[in-house]
Amino acid sequence: MSLPSERTAGLPSERGADVGRRIGVGLMYGLWRPRVLGSWKVPATGPAILAVNHSHNIDGPMVMGVAPRPVHFLIKKEAFVGPLGSFLTGIGQLQVDRHTTDRTAITRALGVLGQGGALGIFPEGTRGEGDFASLRAGLAYFAVRSGAPIVPVAVLGSSERRGRLIQGLPPLRSRVDVVFGDPFEAGDGSGRRTRRALDEATERIQKQLTAHLENARRLTGR
User: Fold this and answer.
1) CATH number among 3.40.50.300, 3.30.70.3400, 3.30.450.20, 3.40.1130.10, domain 14-54+63-220
2) Each residue of 140-178: pLDDT tens digit?
3) How many angstroms separate the CA atoms of 109 and 190, rounded?
């Protein structure tokens, strides 16, 4: 039996994330009707950060299921309870404490990118209107620190309220659009990691994500 190297010890399982993707494919296509646009824009290899708008609980599983490669999402620690927590860990997802500087989560997320993996982030930090109106600095930090490109992702239709049979979920068999955008770099090319550089990167990111969301709405009619 081989032991994990020091470099990979503690990192989420890439194989587990691939299993999670396969489970997500079955669930998402079985319960709803995903329409996926632009998935070819996600880099096939190498580090990438998927920045997803967040208005509903199924946004993460939906992207995990329809993305063209396994994704490790940063998920609030409150979700890691009991059997669900073991399941999320098993499929390569990352636990993060949103109320403090979670250095363990930061190290593991950077480790995912350092190993050439795809990291999924809800840059608004929590569920809201899903319009990228209020971004936290975490996305800019990961992008600038790792040099990984950001792929904007818009999930539209997940918050539809009409026709719901199950409280808190979109109507079963309803259409949910997932639109992947063009990858872009968050930094200015200087390599700076100062607070000012991160603030400037956050502003650039917000403009890019907002523009992608507007374009996704035009494409889908949502």
Assistant:
1) 3.40.1130.10
2) 999 999 999 999 999 998 766 554 445 557 888 899 999
3) 23
